[in-house]
Design a protein that fits this description.
homodimer; mainly alpha; Farnesyl Diphosphate Synthase; two-stranded antiparallel ribbon; 2 strands; 1% strand
Chain lengths: 324, 324
């Protein structure tokens, strides 16, 4: 059985060795650049781990694993334009380093290259793998648009929010796992159970992200704590706080949400205190745990080697107790 | 045998009937919008015509034909952002009507939907069809980037230019025809000959476009005559003129290319006169005819019904004598 770090090494090596055409430079260099910025490679690791549940020969899943990572980075390249983000993992984003047109077109060709690599599976599963890939890609786009729409909507409920993160993050983890399972030779039932594992894990993971943005250790979290609060981002925490806040808490929350150019640290402190008074952190953790449990119970149902399932369970749990 | 206008009707009906999810609205409405703006549907018509050469039952090629048109409109949606174009076929472009983020993301999902529809072919040809689609999509992106690079390059030669339009326009026509042929059950040799037909036709078509931009009847051409001249666009005509111009012609050409804010009509008239003195129109027509002949001789090689081949030849010739 491969360890997570062995899988990450395999993936990083495959990514580093990938040669793109030299010309046109502006089309292919940004792909190598964004792919070299690193990251946990969570999605391709999950794909390989899912394959390994059913077959020890996981190298045949390596190209599709890189395809998933290419797709993920394509979405980041385009999202960064839409968010006007200057930095990604501490380095310049593609549209800052080159320009917006380069980031649009290089992203487009990256999506095509992801399809190309994803096709490197046996004929017997080609159509199903491509269908899963289409569905997850569609979900990610729908989730991203819904997320952008939420910015200007005042009546986003918890259920809307969960559906948005399901589309934007969770179906993609589910899809990665299901593709890995099919490459490993899993039956439909096991493949679907792995999808459910990934989908619920993805929702739990995103809820954890919301919690860490407010309550994470700034040194370990690696981003500005309270960034979501400063940006009035409609996370589970803010939506739940609006649902529960009454009287002074409600007034104060409204004040901070509509304040023009408030001092960031003061706003973060004030909103966090409202969250604390309403017990939002605990509610978010309960919600997260519920999805985490659903994920783990789906994993239990799978007919595969106990040690391998256990390794996947441990990986999932580590993803959820992460502080970065 | 279907007439061209019957095929256009079939395609337009299929496009009009296509239902996208209602939500998120900003993701799917732009797709229906841009697809409804019309056009000659040249690419899907060619795909269906290629299928018909080998099989009268062309309805099975209708979804892949719409996939090609979706892909084409995806490139237009993203190109319009990159070109800052306010109008497309006399109507607002997607990024003007909505905004840039909508045009980026809606375009992305359009590419995914094109893959989805393109997969609606028999298992026996699925992989090959998808590979052709990947290659042509890659070509279009490479061609678009090369075209953008040409804007700031002074030493673009005729061969570079032909390679650029081959990638940007011609491989896509070739790919559409080859996919249609495979769906119709063509052998590899005939499918490749149809690719060559499309590729050469595409280059001839683009050269004709360059000629029409300067010499077309403004009423029939439907765009501003001389638009390429005003924008210093490196077309075959300008590149050839730079190659041939000497003494006063060269000086004058350099003057107009580097003039700041010249009066547009005066510039168009002056540069056209240089073209006339150098016999550029005739050279461009000779170049175009050479590619057109290559296209038609590839068509001749194909083992298919003479009447059907003739219909395709007539369609190609009409594309090349068009004034709009």
């Amino acid at each position: 059985m491969y360890s997570i770090s062995q899988l990450q090494d395999l993936i990083n090596k495959q990514i580093a060795e990938k040669q793109y055409p030299v010309q046109p430079n502006e089309l292919y260099e940004p792909i190598s650049y964004i792919m070299s910025l690193g990251g946990k490679r969570m999605r391709p690791v999950l794909l390989l781990k899912a394959c390994e549940l059913f077959d020890d020969h996981i190298l045949k899943a390596l190209d599709p694993a890189v395809a998933i990572e290419l797709f993920h980075n394509f979405t980041l390249m385009h999202d960064d334009i839409m968010d006007n983000a200057p930095l990604r993992r501490g380095k310049q984003t593609v549209h800052s380093k080159w320009n917006e047109n380069v980031a649009i077109l290089s992203g487009d060709v990256m999506l095509v290259k992801a399809y190309e690599l994803m096709m490197r599976v046996d004929d017997g599963i080609l159509r199903q793998v491509m269908q899963i890939f289409n569905e997850t890609a569609t979900g990610v786009c729908e989730g991203q648009q819904t997320d952008m729409n939420f910015e200007s909507m005042m009546d986003v409920g918890v259920a809307d929010y969960i559906e948005m993160i399901r589309l934007k993050t969770a179906v993609f983890l589910g899809g990665s796992l299901k593709i890995g399972a099919l490459i490993g030779g899993a039956g439909q039932e096991d493949a679907s159970a792995l999808y459910a594992f990934g989908e619920n894990l993805g929702i739990a993971f995103q809820l954890q992200d919301d919690i860490l943005d407010v309550y994470g250790d700034p040194e370990k979290f690696g981003k500005l704590v309270g960034g979501d609060i400063i940006a009035n981002k409609k996370t589970f925490l803010l939506i739940k706080a609006f649902e529960l806040a009454e009287n002074i808490d409600e007034e104060e929350l409204n004040y901070w949400i509509s304040a023009e150019n408030p001092e960031p640290a003061t706003k973060v402190k004030a909103v966090t205190e409202i969250y604390n008074r309403l017990g939002i952190r605990q509610l978010a953790e309960e919600e997260m745990n519920e999805f985490a449990e659903k994920a783990l119970s789906a994993l239990e149902r799978i007919d595969a080697d106990g040690d391998k399932k256990n390794a996947l369970r441990v990986f999932a749990e580590e993803l959820l107790v992460r502080e970065n």
